[in-house]
Design a protein that fits this description.
Distance between the termini: 44 Å
Helix content: 40-55%
Strand content: 5-15%
Strand order of the largest sheet: 4-7-10-3-11
Radius of gyration: 23 Å
Order of helices and strands: HHHEEHEHEHEHEHEHEEEHEHHHHHH
Largest sheet: 5 strands, parallel
Structural class: alpha/beta
Number of helices: 16
CATH architecture of the largest domain: 3-Layer(aba) Sandwich
Number of domains: 2
CATH class of the largest domain: Alpha Beta
Number of strands: 11
């Protein structure tokens, strides 16, 4: 069955690593957790558990990971914020996989998310036939997490309407859900918490209220500090993603990954990497996550319509789609970048320059 799934949850994909960490545990384990905070850090940041090598899931500031884990040891909820592509959802998923062995208690925040999706709703056929009962209740992921003493995830919380966000305030304050239809209250078991993520570029439908923010410990995930770190992140994630897809292509060479990351960083910052030339920025975010997606798409092109090795034409097709989001502004900025930066970088960039120009 697992081979038919498009994407395995983290606890299935890294099952051997999690089992090794649990088997080699030597530190105290908090109530409701599968392993100690130190072992969770090892799972996220990499290391060893006995003879098993633990691959790093998050490449960045280890202290931020420690703050996030320490928050979840207390009764405080955790809010991960940052620009798109800073691995907020990725870190959230892996934290819950390590702590609870289940990362699937998740609510995806949108403009259409309702308060019932935060609390509970009803099977109306059973409700009409038998009246209110626990059997007729449809429990939200947060409701289930409170009953089980585990962690629920709320993705893109800032995209939810204000009344939906407010439904979380009482849950986080009182650590219980009231069900007036049944005359009962459900208290949270030890180990319950919430990890929410929010995008600093997309404020969503409503900005989070101060009352809600006060109920979270906030950890800001930064963009990668330098080009080398971003290259390392992109290379490792492309390798992981490509392993679960039938792309029929070889992994991108180091030179290709470096070119994509360099272009993205320069267009994000508005200046060349050596800081000698100002350039126009584009309307898109050009995040690390987009660089990963671009390279996977280029592999798919190379495997489906080429010889299995990413060519300049494959890469150029992905770059055009990633950079040009708004026709007027982005085309102008991209043309200027090609002529004033890429064209002047010599023979190593000439093939990619020509391929990009053909698509304009």
């Amino acid at each position: 069955m697992s081979t038919e799934m498009l994407r395995l949850p983290a606890e299935e994909q890294y099952k051997k690593e999690l089992e090794a960490l649990i088997a080699n545990e030597t530190d105290p384990v908090p109530a409701g957790w599968k392993m100690s905070p130190r072992s969770v850090r090892t799972y996220i940041c990499g290391g060893k558990a006995g003879n098993t090598v633990i691959t790093p899931k998050y490449i960045g500031h280890e202290r931020l990971v420690e703050i996030a884990i320490a928050t979840l040891v207390t009764d405080r909820a955790l809010l991960l914020i940052g620009e798109p592509g800073t691995a907020k959802s990725w870190l959230s998923e892996h934290l819950t996989a390590a702590i609870n062995g289940n990362s699937t208690n998740v609510i995806q925040g949108t403009a259409g998310t309702t308060e019932e999706q935060i609390r509970y709703s009803w099977n109306y056929a059973m409700l009409l036939a038998k009246g209110p009962s626990q059997e007729a209740m449809l429990k939200s992921p947060i409701f289930r997490a409170m009953e089980e003493g585990t962690i629920a995830r709320v993705e893109e919380i800032s995209r939810c309407a204000s009344e939906v966000q407010d439904a979380l305030i009482s849950i986080l304050s009182e650590k219980r859900i009231s069900v007036p239809e049944l005359g009962m209250e459900v208290p949270a078991k030890k180990g319950f918490s919430i990890i929410a993520t929010a995008n600093t570029r997309d404020k969503g439908v409503n900005e989070m209220s101060s009352a809600l923010k006060r109920r979270f410990n906030i950890v800001v995930l930064p963009v990668p500090d330098d080009l080398e770190t971003e290259i390392q992140i992109v290379r490792s994630r492309v390798e992981q993603l490509a392993g679960g897809m039938e792309l029929n292509a070889s992994l991108p060479k180091e030179e290709i990954v470096e070119k994509v990351c360099t272009i993205f960083r320069e267009l994000r910052s508005g200046e060349t990497y050596d800081k000698t030339q100002k350039i126009k920025t584009t309307t898109g975010v050009l995040s690390t996550a987009e660089a990963i997606s671009l390279l996977c798409g280029s592999m798919a092109l190379a495997g489906s319509f080429g010889d299995g090795t990413i060519s300049d034409e494959d890469l150029a097709a992905g770059l055009s789609g990633a950079v040009i989001k708004e026709e007027d502004k982005d085309v102008t900025a991209w043309k200027e970048y090609l002529e004033n930066v890429m064209k002047k970088r010599g023979s190593k960039w000439n093939g990619l320059y020509r391929a990009c120009r053909k698509l304009l």
